[in-house]
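Quick one: co-fold with flavin-adenine dinucleotide.
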Amino acid sequence: MSETSTSQIGGDETGVFSQRTRLSSDLDVDICVVGAGLAGLTVALCAARQGASVAVLEGRQVGWNASGHLLGTVMPGFALPLPDLIERVGFDDARELWALSCAGAEFVRANASETSMPGLGFSEGALEVSNVDGGDDLIRRLQMLNEDFNTEVEGWQVGRVREALKTDRYFHGIYYPRAFQLDGRNYVHALAMLARRAGARIFEDTPVVSVDASGVRKRIVTPSARLRAAHIVLAGNIHLGAPLRRLSDTLLPVWRYGGITAPLGAQLAEAIAFPGSVADSDGIDQFRIVDGDRLMWVSPETTWAARPQRFASVIQRRIRSIFPQLGGVDITETFGGVTGQTVHGMPQVGQLRKGLWVASGFGRQGINTSAMAAQLITRGMLAGDDRWRLFSPFELVWAGGRTGRVAGYAVGLWTRGRSAVAGTLARHRERLRLREQTREREREARLAEAHRPAAPDRPPAGQPRSRRPQPPPPSSPA
Ligand SMILES: Cc1cc2nc3c(=O)[nH]c(=O)nc-3n(C[C@H](O)[C@H](O)[C@H](O)COP(=O)(O)OP(=O)(O)OC[C@H]3O[C@@H](n4cnc5c(N)ncnc54)[C@H](O)[C@@H]3O)c2cc1C
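Sure, here it is.
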């Protein structure tokens, strides 16, 4: 699936990448986690830290899918826009959910600093830019985030955005100083290492083929061994398959692709003078500078699996259309993964039946949200905390199977098309406005010139100044 070659932590001197164990004998544990992506590994880490015995079963390898192939931006919130969240659950619960998502991001930050490993490429700050000239909208969102949701954000005017990003494609922006980015591939392996250190056991090449969650001790079957556990956490994203087909059918699989350019030298810093990641508000392009002078760019999406290299030229065209001054850049690496999107846009977090938990459906914003899910589920399993119920309004809804994929793709194309048109219109209006302003200035200058008092006639040297004709005195009334 992936052709990314993001560097590994310390060149794998720690050996964490090569420690691969397959489950070959039966096991009895407190918690069995299905899936070693961000969600499963974070549950394993949290639960093992609380002293539970944990086994993670992974059908392939740690982070082989989306969790190891991402842009690496860690933002507050969810894929579902905030106004929609408020509409769905009301203001108070939306605030609480938002705060949980921020805590998820802070948990990732703490892990990243704890690993103190090279290769995480940690950097601060993210910028969300608008494709259309929507200053009023921006002010409303800023107020909401700052005042109602207690989130540190700054509004950037068009001029400031264009100082940071030399393109006329973007207008206003929202700067999130507490957002950050890291190397996703290295982070998922760092998580695995932390989980192992905390006592969790991770078995790769060990697909779960069925689960029986009916008894107090649940049964989990793999091709080579069986497990018994008090809790099962399903963190398999769209690949879960046989163990609970009905659950994977509630996710619409969306493949996302990214690419990394060859080193671009000093011209990259001239075009992009912003160290964090950038996303446009329509969710079409996301990018950031990596390795000093290379551009990592995520954009294309499909609802079927394709080889990431196929999208190198698409990415190249996207870069060229936003930053034409960079010319036709070489895309030297491509990567991709499949995300699971829910019908309502919120992750699936909670207990399906006693002892059977789900942490899935993180869509395109999975780093902070999977950490949040792991924290909630661990507290639910080990401390009886039922705050995971905040997710109850977001039920498991069938994603429509094959028809859903076709519809999802059509909607995606339509949304992108509509955003592109809106962006073009916004730029067109901006050009008209600038032209109108220039005309107005020229007209004012001409008027000012016409009304300027004429310079007094200077008589030739030595001659008396000629007197201007004076208006006749007003005639006195008869
Ligand atoms: C190109 C791209 C860029 C992205 N950029 C960002 C970003 O910048 N910021 C952000 O927050 N998010 C981003 N995302 C989204 C993020 O990557 C995902 O939301 C997140 O990785 C999902 O994690 P997961 O653990 O749920 O799923 P996965 O990573 O898919 O992990 C699930 C694992 O479960 C295993 N599994 C499934 N079924 C079984 C079974 N029956 N038995 C055993 N194992 C099983 C699978 O093999 C897999 O390894 C991006 C995604 C992509 C594709």
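If it helps, The first strand starts at residue 27 and ends at 34.
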